[in-house]
Amino acid sequence: MDSDYVFLCGVMWCRFGQQEAGKELLRAATTMDPEMDPDMRALAWAMLAQGARRLRNWEDGPTPLLARSLEETYVDEIMRGL
Asked: What is the pTM of this model?
C-alpha cells in the first residue's frame, strides 16, 4: 500500500463515509507487514478516527446528513453494510 492510496482512502472515509475506504484504512492501520511505514500506519489510524468522529457528529447534529436517495444517515448506511 502506498501513501497516496492511504491518503485517498482517508479522504473518501472522512468526507463521504465510504465503507470500503474505511476498511482499507483499518487494513493499513493494523497490518503486521514489517515493510509498512510506521508513519503511514499512523496516518491511517488518524484518518480512521477522524472519519468516525465526523460521522458521529453528523448523526448527533440537529439535522443529520441524509443519503441522497435512501433518506437515511450515512452512519445507518455504513452500519447496515457491516
From this structure: 0.63
